[in-house]
Design a protein that fits this description.
Blueprint: H1 3-9, H2 11-32, H3 39-62, H4 70-85, H5 91-113, H6 118-138, E1 148-149, E2 155-156, E3 160-161, H7 165-187, H8 190-200, H9 202-207, H10 212-238, E4 240-241, H11 248-261, H12 268-282, H13 289-304, H14 308-317
Antiparallel strand pairs: 1-4, 2-3
Helix pairs in contact: 3-7, 3-10, 3-11, 3-12, 4-5, 4-6, 4-10, 5-6, 5-10, 7-10, 8-10, 11-12, 11-14
Amino acid sequence: MAVSEQLAGQPGIRETRMSRFLWAVLILFVLTSPAYIYAVFAMQLLCFALFAGAFNLLLGFTGLLSFGHAAFFGAAAYVAGHAIKVWGLPPLAGIVFATGVAAALGFVIGWLAIRRQGIYFAMITLALAQIIYFLGLQLPFTGGENGLQGIPRGRLLGFIDLNQTLNMYYFVAAIFMIGFLIIYRTIHSPFGQVMKSIRENEARALSLGYNVNRFKLIAFILSAALSGLAGSTKSVVFQFASLTDLHWQTSGEVILMTLLGGLGTIFGPVVGAITIVSLQHELSSLGSWVQVVIGLIFIVCVLVFRRGIVGELARLLKTSSM
């Protein structure tokens, strides 16, 4: 057997090639999607794909199930909208500021929640997220049930008009790629290895001398910040922030996206987000029955693809690089 054939059969070489292939597909999709997809819809896909990736960083790689991630997504949407519309901040500055607010909120909620484990952790995040939802309903600057409307897109760096749809799309695409690269780098860093060890065996990680609660809190803050980045970007895209962004159902949808795409995989949340958002868009004529159809599809996928779409594909290809 030739040396090249031997190398091709090695798992490390195969996983590297698979990773490069998936990156190529993702970059190609991001660069070319406006050519065959309505640009605003493509931006919605990227925002929710980043949101799902941020959530997967917490659940899939740290083992922490949050039922309240919509708090960071929606709060950042409102903060960015208010900062841009009322304070007059440029869109990029507004998004960065809102991401920082989401990170600070993640610190507060994470500091309170990580003291508990399992279902108690999940319920604490849900309860605190409902408080944020109530604030979104009652605070005067949010617009209550009408939401925060008329958020201007403005200009990027003072000269790129984001009211031009294509300019706005590539701005969102750049934000998505930066966020996804942060997720990818985190997973493949020493910090990411500690996160995985906490997920697999928290007691053993503790016995090795790691400050488990500190690592959990950092992972929670990072996940919250990236969720806020997705939410604030979405508010600029649609020029609107609503209570739907803060609702518990949004937290449920991001869990569904992650599980459907593949929990603990890198590209799975992207696939899951694209699948769910596309189904909601294509089946919108069914009204409230959309959720029933999506629920049935999810049940089928859980029974047939227990590791999610990408997780099952990775199992068949015997690779962990997906």
